[in-house]
Amino acid sequence: MISLSNVSFRYGDRTPWALKDITLQAVNSLVILGPSGAGKSTLLRLIGGYLVPGEGSLTVDGEPPSRHPLAVREWIGYVPQENDLPRELTLREFLRELTLIDARGGTAEAIVGEIVERLNLEGATERRLKHFSGGMKRRALLASALIRPCRLLRLDEPTAGLDPDEQATILTTIHSLSESCQVVMTTQILQDALALPAKTILLKAGRMAIETSVPELAEAARGRVFAVQGSEELEPSQLWMPTAEGDRVRVLSESPSSRWSELSPTIEDGYLWLLREGGARRES
Ligand code: ADP
Ligand code: MG
Q1: Closest C-alpha to ligand 1, atom 19
Q2: Ligand closest to CA 81
Q3: What is the pLDDT along the chain (284 residues), one digit of tens a residue?
Q4: Atom number, ligand 1, closest to the C-alpha of residue 206
Q5: Which of ligand 1's atoms lies nearest the C-alpha of 203?
Q6: CA pair distance 11, 221, nearest whole angstrom
Q7: Closest Cα to atom 14, ligand 1: which residue?
Q8: Helical H runs in the chain?
Q9: From the CA of 37, which ligand is nearest?
Q10: What is the atom index within ligand 1 of the atom nearest the CA of 12?
Q11: How far is the CA of 221 from the centre of ligand 1 (A)?
Q12: Which strands sit side by side in the sheet containing 207-212, from one edge to the other?
């Protein structure tokens, strides 16, 4: 179990808090949503013990992960945001290298074979990593994180920059991994959160705007989403989005006109609403 109590962190004494007053418990998988700079990667680093809270306490399975950083590496896996792979190695060479360094028990070949099969990469083992597509690079990184038998897997924006087909493949893989291991995943793509039956949190400028589940995220915008004729004049502060209907726009507003018709909120509406001043103030 991951448990945070009033955790705050900043990168330097004079820098703003990257995370402020985060209190959270996660027994199963966790999805961390939020825009760039919200503190998602920082939270993943804290959970992995790479960083230590400046204030508050953080434990994973009852212990601060930073207390035994090397022991924790044995069972907390990590897939970083960057696609940093040794370009000239083939997938098999890359995974074998890691197996020699990290694996406990089992022969290197057997471990690599099992992981490659699990991630559907059998056809790619002899190809150099520099020739991999974005989605395959992500899967190769996932494979590298699974060399060790992990109980907790941290994934930092695993679908960023992938096309929809590659995204779907990665999400399917993550979904099946989540059946045997606790997954903590950050993402800016709301549909990603649907891949995991997980507790979801939304970070906004280092603070927790909401702790919820994905379906409940939509509820945050209930009563504030309207269809408006495109010809109608809207205030610049009102957030609107085009709709497929062409002549109507979708508006998020706290002060609707009586001419507008209310719509059912989507998870995007809830997310946008909470990121706006009014929504976040209401939640805090
Ligand atoms: P996210 O992953 O949600 O984009 P980050 O956790 O990377 O957000 O960043 C949160 C805040 O901490 C940002 O203001 C960012 O500029 C700052 N930050 C992140 N990494 C560092 C670092 N290594 N040194 C100083 N500030 C950092
Ligand atoms: Mg990040």
Answers
A1: 42
A2: 2
A3: 999 999 999 999 999 999 999 999 999 999 999 999 999 999 999 999 999 999 999 999 999 998 887 777 778 888 888 878 999 999 999 998 888 766 556 688 888 898 898 888 999 999 999 999 888 898 899 898 888 777 899 999 999 988 888 888 889 989 988 988 999 999 998 888 888 888 999 999 999 999 998 878 999 999 999 999 877 877 767 777 777 677 888 899 888 889 999 999 999 999 999 988 654 344 33
A4: 10
A5: 3
A6: 34
A7: 37
A8: 40-47, 69-73, 91-102, 108-118, 134-145, 164-177, 190-193, 214-219, 267-275, 277-283
A9: 1
A10: 25
A11: 28
A12: 76-79, 152-156, 182-187, 30-33, 199-204, 207-212
- Mutating to test ligand 1, I would choose from 42, 79, 154 the residue with most ligand atoms within 8 A of its C-beta, which is 42
Instruction: Characterise 12 by phi-psi region: left (phi > 0), alpha (psi -120 to 50), beta (else).
Output: beta
Closest residue by Cα to residue 218 from 190, 260, 253: 190
Q: Rounded to the nearest whole angstrom, what is the distance from the C-alpha of residue 243 to the centroid of ligand 2?
A: 30
The alpha carbon of 79 and the centre of ligand 2 are apart by a number of angstroms equal to 12
pTM over 0.85? The answer is: yes
The two tokens of residue 24 are 């959270």
Fold of 2-85+132-216: Rossmann fold (3.40.50)
Angle at 43 between CA 38 and CA 49, to 5 degrees: 155
Q: Name every residue whose Cβ is closer than 8 Å to that of residue 167 and which is 6 or more positions away in sequence.
A: 135, 159, 189, 192
Atom number in ligand 1 closest to CA 81: 2
Residue with tokens 């269809």: 227
Cα 39 to ligand 1 centroid, rounded to whole Å = 6
